[in-house]
Amino acid sequence: MLSAVTRASRSNAARASHFLTGRTNIKSIISPAVCSKIQIGASNKYYSTDSADNAPKKEYSETTKKLVFGLARMMGYYSTSSTAIRASHDLYSVCAKQVEENKKFYLQDCSLPDNFQTWFSITQLHVWLLMVRLRAEDHGKLYIQELVNRFFEDAEDKMRLHGITSGRIINSYVKDLLAQFHGGVVAYDEGMCKDDPVLAAALWRNLFTPTTGNANDLAYIVQYIRRELKILDEYDSEKLNDGRIQFSTPVASFEPSKSEI
């Protein structure tokens, strides 16, 4: 007779296998970043039921504002590390919801499976796009680290939401995902610096599967990546460092080249 511990371990392993390989409703996968949820949940008891329009507006004197801002600086609220952590939540949130916001393109037009791996791969692609832009900033390395931290916190949270409670199994999957992440970053960097066929090959290895995708699908996403890199290159540093970012909508069609316009 199997012990309770053995039965529990097998149950965890079975749920983990189904989670990573089976089809999962995308609405149960895409959610706000876990840290954002923690912050919101922790402060719910302080929320007022009064509407913003009806609530009295408080006016503070310039002296009070200076005292508050001065105290915030003394407490490190405006330090580089604190600013990077706050901005990373907003930057990551935009990356994490790309599958949900562009479900038709990724799941229908490109025929990607509706599961955790698709969410992880597409989110990783957008995290990488921001990483490329953040490298040009003075404190870009710190922002990148916090952005990646948010990514893996969210990935781990999603595993737990799908019933994987074994710390050993979660740690094993996180190590695999981390290796996949680093491999994808290197491959996308190479494709960005070389040419479209190299970038398409990186997408084929990291986003598509042997049973999904075709030449047109690869070309659509290559076109999308090149466009987003150009937009991000021209993006205002202040907005980026404040976490204010947005991506364009990918399309299953080819945009005319400048010579055709």
From TrEMBL:
Start and end residues of each Ubiquinol-cytochrome c chaperone domain: 108-247
Origin superkingdom: Eukaryota
UniProt-listed GO biological process terms: mitochondrial respiratory chain complex III assembly
GO cellular component: mitochondrion
PANTHER family, alphabetized: UBIQUINOL-CYTOCHROME C REDUCTASE COMPLEX ASSEMBLY FACTOR 1 FAMILY MEMBER, UBIQUINOL-CYTOCHROME-C REDUCTASE COMPLEX ASSEMBLY FACTOR 1
Family: Belongs to the CBP3 family.
Name of the protein described by the UniProt record: Ubiquinol-cytochrome c chaperone domain-containing protein
Organism encoding this protein: Mortierella isabellina
